[in-house]
Structure to design on (531 residues):
């Protein structure tokens, strides 16, 4: 049994990864304190606050990190909290754009209808920049919210896709003084100086939370350069492999909460659905069935391997050879 | 000398909120990307030279050098030089966006996904309870793994609770100790570099 061809193991993993997508078990996900604290914090915020979502992950970890960032983004849009989006690496800039495409896509359940910066220029120049008066004025111009859309989001009022800027740890330091000096234009070439949300939140000192959805150690930059310098509250969204490393930051209070791996993202989706913020759970919750099946298979393989090892007397042979 | 002066200056600058200090920092943040841009030129130039050399000499696997050079120059051309009317630009819809979303994202996600298969194979072959410590490690891993998935809760509420306890207490303590050690080590090494005691980064110039 110890010499089993590893292609059988690969086949097993392939099957348990694919089948749950077709047979929806819908196993319940209970939430933990680490994720609830992020949810409760964002839930308390409103139109006068603002948050940063930093897309610090590459396509390799998007299965875990993307649902975290998307979940918090949708939560913020629901509560009319302006969202600044950044990326610490050129590749991660693409992840930011992909997240926006997903949230603004009419085929996504519970999507938001985006209004581009140039499209509402006339209202902006007329001085209509408050969220609710803007919606009223926009709809009075004959614009109708599409069926299935959860609401309007105006570029420059509800979100600003700042994107990537080089030497991102210095950018964070620079944003503690002024966001506009680090990002004179956003990722779409719009002048950030004309954005109402930038006029109301000029630096990181006027931001209420920064979520870093990260697949690398870059998440610590936010703690080092923002949390420790100006006291900006930070939340982590990390891969499962990394999540264990950052519990000390949770315990010391340097971060307000942490979403660890696909499980953390699924917990946030459950909280969003239970509180009526999104109509259904999303990809992370669906992925938990796959993860359950894969974990059980791996544990079974470990048990089988150990049974075969001890039953075959290999542990005695190792002892005879002077092994431990 | 430059490293010492610059290092000490930036350490002091971090703790001084005066306007002069902020002005120095602003100059530094303006100049750093410019200097790093030269590193980019150096990197691209070096990569181009190595791979064009491989192609010219028909070295082993020379065909893959085209796979490096064509996207290296092609993607910036698609993003910044090709007019938008011909599919240029970075935003959707553009050729660059297509290649990024449907080629690069897919390839990177696939490479990462392969880990699941290798981990399963490694788990079968290598995770052995050969000693008491190995057994404790294995048990802790099984409890945490089951605690992280919904199935664990169906098997028993104690599983996720125990898994979380392991993460929040013993794991935290060990990680904190490691972080402190690494942090002190980094501090010592950086101070040695700033004060010129450590000169390996000079590439032998300090000998």
């Amino acid at each position: 049994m110890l010499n089993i061809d590893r292609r059988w193991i690969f086949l097993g993993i392939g099957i348990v990864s694919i089948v749950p997508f077709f047979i929806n078990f819908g196993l319940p996900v209970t939430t933990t304190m680490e994720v609830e604290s992020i949810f409760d914090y964002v839930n308390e915020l409103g139109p006068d606050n603002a948050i940063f979502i930093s897309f610090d992950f590459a396509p390799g970890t998007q299965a875990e990190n993307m649902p975290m960032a998307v979940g918090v983004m949708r939560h913020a849009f629901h509560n009319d909290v302006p969202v600044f989006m950044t990326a610490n690496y050129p590749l991660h800039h693409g992840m930011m754009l992909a997240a926006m495409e997903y949230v603004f896509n009419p085929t996504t359940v519970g999507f938001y209808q985006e209004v581009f910066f140039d499209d509402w220029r006339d209202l902006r120049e007329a001085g209509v920049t408050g969220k609710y008066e803007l919606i009223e004025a926009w709809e009075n111009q004959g614009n109708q919210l599409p069926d299935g859309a959860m609401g309007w989001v105006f570029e420059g009022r509800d979100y600003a896709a700042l994107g990537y800027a080089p030497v991102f740890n210095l950018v964070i330091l620079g944003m503690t003084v002024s966001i506009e000096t680090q990002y004179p234009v956003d990722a779409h070439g719009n002048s950030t100086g004309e954005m109402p949300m930038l006029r109301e939140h000029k630096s990181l000192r006027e931001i209420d939370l920064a979520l870093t959805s990260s697949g690398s150690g870059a998440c610590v930059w936010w703690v080092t350069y923002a949390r420790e310098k100006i006291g900006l509250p930070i939340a982590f969204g990390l891969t499962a492999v990394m999540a264990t490393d950052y519990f000390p930051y949770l315990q010391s209070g340097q971060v307000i909460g942490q979403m660890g791996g696909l499980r953390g993202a699924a917990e946030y989706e459950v909280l969003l659905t239970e509180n009526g913020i999104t109509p259904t759970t999303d990809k992370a919750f669906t992925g938990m069935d796959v993860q359950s099946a894969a974990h059980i298979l791996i544990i079974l393989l470990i048990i089988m391997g150990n049974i075969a090892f001890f039953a075959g007397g290999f542990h005695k042979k190792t002892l005879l050879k002077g092994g431990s | 000398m430059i490293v010492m002066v610059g290092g000490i200056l930036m350490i002091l600058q971090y703790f001084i909120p005066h306007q002069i200090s902020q002005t120095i920092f602003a100059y530094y943040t303006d100049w750093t990307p410019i200097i790093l841009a030269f590193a980019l030129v150096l990197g691209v130039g070096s990569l181009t030279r190595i791979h064009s050399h491989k192609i010219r000499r028909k070295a082993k696997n020379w065909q893959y050098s085209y796979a490096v050079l064509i996207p290296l120059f092609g993607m910036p051309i698609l993003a910044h030089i090709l007019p938008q009317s011909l599919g240029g630009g970075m935003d959707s819809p553009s050729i660059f966006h297509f290649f990024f979303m449907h080629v690069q994202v897919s390839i990177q996600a696939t490479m990462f996904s392969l880990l699941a298969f290798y981990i399963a194979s490694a788990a079968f072959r290598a995770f052995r309870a050969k000693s008491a410590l190995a057994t404790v490690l294995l048990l802790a891993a099984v409890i945490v793994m089951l605690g992280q998935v919904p199935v664990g809760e169906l098997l028993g509420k104690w599983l996720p609770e125990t898994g979380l306890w392991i993460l929040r207490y013993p794991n935290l303590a060990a990680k904190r100790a490691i972080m402190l050690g690494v942090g002190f080590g980094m501090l010592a090494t950086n101070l040695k570099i700033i004060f010129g005691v450590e000169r390996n980064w000079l590439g032998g110039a300090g000998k």
